[in-house]
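FAQ
Q: What does a multi-component entry look like?
A: The components come first, one per line:
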Amino acid sequence: MSGFSITEPSNRTKWIAGVLVISYALITIMPLLWIIATGFKSPSDSIAYPPKVVFQPTLEGYVNLFTTQTRITPDMQDKLQPPTTWYEEIVRDKGMVIAGPSRFGQRFLNSVIIGFGSTFFSVFLGTLAAYAFSRFKVPIKDDLLFFILSTRMMPPIAVAIPIFLMFRQLGLSDTHLGMILLYTAVNLSLSVWLLKGFIDEIPLEYEEAALIDGYTRFQAFYKVVLPQAATGIASTAIFCLIFAWNEYAFAVLLTSGTAQTAPPFIPTIIGVGGQDWPAVAAGATIFLMPVMIFTILLRKHLLRGITFGAVRK
Amino acid sequence: MADKAMDRIAKATPPGITKRVRGLSDRTIAWIFVAPSIFLLLAVNIFPLIWTIRLSFTNFRVNRINADVKWVGLRNYERILNDPDIWQTMQATAHFLIWTIFFQVLIGFTLAYLINKKFRGNDMWTTIIVLPMMLSPAVVGNFWTFLYQPQIGLFNYVVSFFSGVDPASFSMIGSVNLAPWAIVIVDTWMWTPFVMLICLAGLRSIPGSIYEAAECDRASKWRQFWTITIPMVLPFLMMAVLFRGIENFKMFDLVVQLTGGGPGSATEVTSINLKREAFEKWRTGYASAYAVILFVTIFGLASIYVKALNKVKER
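Then the predicted structure of the entire assembly, as tokens:
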């Protein structure tokens, strides 16, 4: 590292660049901050004009998100026992009672099951295939790799028609297994390409040494290569997880109940008289938060991964 | 101590290294490792594609399972290519594609160029800028309809604050003229970071010595920018455009949540149009032909583009 370089930007340049980038960043996160803020607003605050930046925070949106409610008449309300929990109190204040839990919890859980399930399989299969492509002479290797990549060019709706028919025939429509299989296949191309890059970077010598020491290929693979590729595998897994987490087109077309994930569900949250924006925002916050936290915590690996996938031919 | 450890390692190493049969042969392992992936892709991607192609020559309808399925030859294709609605859809798609790519390249490259000046805290701000692209387009798109509400929406409020226009006087997603721009704005907001990151990778790949050499030759900053920076980043930028182009040609989730293709068919991009034909009108055969045409278009355009890209890389 040279201490002084004539190409190092001047302090003034840095200052201007910093101001411009920071202003863009502040504008760009406004919608996200607005989602989080709206989740804590009362319905009337959420649609106030001018838009309220300062407001009395309430958990009403979150309560509405997780429960279904019915309206009761005032005299019925008098007969009821006083509310015992804080959330009952919020609902009671509006002249309603909690009828039961909403479907949000279930939809969120579906997202978790399908997201993690498909990530596991696509990384597992992807690692095996990537290792083989990286280390062995696979016949028609380039064609296979291109074939794997080309599966990403298809519009989801275009493949959805026969998949819809196929799933119906096999009894896979609206099941977790069906969605896991589908997302595994969609993510596989990304996972093979990313992981091949990571495994290519591990020097061959390690394995050769292990083979000479009497390891079998399998042993060399899981005792030598896998630990070395761990970081790469982890960041690939996060990409697959984020994709499956965010996927909407297949989810909305192929699931409607049991296996429906959160993205098609959240926009359908409707309150009394129109969309209940605080509840939608609460759902969006809960749903988006894990990804935001992941992105911030793992920024180094993620940012490398995004460009890696694109820049590598 | 060290000697002892070495001894133990030596003893632990099994004898007869080369003569031992090492499990399965490499060839077998290669196939065992690759086969499951290929099989899954064949089952979930290629088999459906072939099925789509087959369906595209028939008048099959999913909602009428018992009706006779007739082989109609190329009639579906003929009808699509002569359908003025499809051309309308293509126009909406082209508008969306061209403007999103234009803005994303412009803003994305500028941001990357500025971030590459390495001001203090640049990686933290980069992460913040990247956040939108990591989030679910459907969920975020749905929330943008709230920001776009006339009168109460934050977007309308901000616009009226700076321009003085009455915030209740325009509706970004309700007006035929504004809706195409509403989807361009959200897509640009969401995906500019992608172009930015790839440009940044490009800028960082340029060795500093080139600039130093140019500096010694007394090339102006302006000249350096046009003769070093731009040509060196161009392959990266073209790669980013390819990825965004393919993605936006297929764009579904964001637009469906924002405008649902409306008002009328002002923002009915191809994927939404296709979804209507296939899953609302249930014209399966017709929609399959449509899907095949789209796929061929994407594939064709992408291959031409990749050829051009390789030429740029060779230079």
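Q: Is there any commentary attached?
A: Sometimes. For this entry: The mean pLDDT of chain B is 85.
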